Amino acid sequence: xxxxxxxxGGLVQPGGSLRLSCAASGFTFSNYGMHWVRxxxxxGLVWVSRVNGDGSGTNYADSVKGRFTISRDNAKNTLYxxxxxxxxxxxxxxxxxxxxxxxxxxxxxxxxx
Amino acid sequence: xxxxxQSSSASASLGSSVKLTCxxxxxxxxxxxxxxxxxxxxxxxxxxxxxxxxxxxxxxGVPDRxxxxxxxxxxxxxxxxxxxxxxxDYYCDTWDSNTRVFGGGTKLTVL
Lengths: 113, 111
Fold this sequence. Notes:
The complex is a heterodimer of chains A (113) and B (111).
Chain A: E1 3-7, E2 10-12, E3 18-25, E4 34-39, E5 45-51, E6 58-60, E7 68-73, E8 78-83, E9 92-98, E10 102-103, E11 107-111
Parallel strand pairs in A: 2-11
Antiparallel strand pairs in A: 1-3, 3-8, 4-5, 4-9, 5-6, 7-8, 9-10, 9-11
Chain B: E1 4-6, E2 9-12, E3 18-24, E4 33-38, E5 45-50, E6 56-58, E7 66-71, E8 74-79, E9 88-95, E10 100-102, E11 106-110
Parallel strand pairs in B: 2-11
Antiparallel strand pairs in B: 1-3, 3-8, 4-5, 4-9, 5-6, 7-8, 9-10, 9-11
């Protein structure tokens, strides 16, 4: 079964850091680009970042550029999102997504003092 | 970069059909888009991709009641024989080499 399991969310103060993880199973992980997408409470889906299959190419939304870093470990079938200099407006559910067609269940990030 | 526009809400009766629209910005009419369903309190679920030609490819397990089509810059998701579990938010998205963009979503109410 194709599956993505997101983890690593939590409560953090403004200016703090968190690292999200997404464990993939049931498919050849390195064959797929991977994305992080977030959803603030009561709001719509917003793309955050993507990485290509071998990890050599990355892109970011302007709102997180310079603060977030996406990476992957194909030997561990795991996607990461390192989030630094967190802001209150980064509060959201964060989903990892395989290309277009498979979503994780999400992990909640709350930035608050 | 492309922009996707969706109506904020739609409603239809149980057992009827509804057609949701996702409109691509001018100059992006050939883009592939995807539709996703998000039931209340759940993660999004991929439904289908619609090619620039109008052909569509559904995800695994998506019922036959769901179909896709296009006209110009409009991409449609049609749901036939509406069921109560179809009450959800529906999002379209598209992408290019540098970015990915979601529409604002349509909240579908089944009456």
